[in-house]
Amino acid sequence: MSSTTSNGHGPAGGASRRDFLGLVTGAFAAVGSAAIAWSLIDSMNPAADVIAAGAPMDLDISKIEPGQQIVVRWRGMPILLVNRTAEMMATLNNKADVARLADPNSDVNQQPGYAKNWHRSVKPELAVLVGICTHLGCLPEFFPKPDPSQPVENWPGGYFCPVPPYFYVDPKTVRVGQNPAGVSFSLGEVAQL
Fold it and tell me: Torsions phi, psi of 72, nearest 5?
């Protein structure tokens, strides 16, 4: 009996070549599947820009003019910063205007403890607010001066918004997205009105 295969290409052990090709093909398939699985799993991690979007951000407030509002985005939310004038702060202390507020004494959890005061901020002259209405989810508009076209009679100007975590890094810089040392507050704690 001859030890060659019917095609004449070597010993009858041609199955070992077939086994080798099967192993190589299987190995490539396993490596390819692992690479696809790794890519899929890795794609579920947040991107660098998403991670950075949740990080605290320092803002130069020295250029905000009295009565001016600037809007920045933090964690996908508009953050409103208003450099209040003396007239605006006087309105915040006006007993008749304060009596019209839904929560004049800051009793409802709408801001961190360091902003539970008559001006609802760390410093009276700078308001730092989340620009999303807590009860309707709308984006409030800023009317720094009384506006007779408003639907509310005797509208004194301004708006209502919750306060995000923030603190002053120095006199010209405010850091939005981080509480002062020793304070714990998150927007998830805000009571919905």
Answer: -125, 165
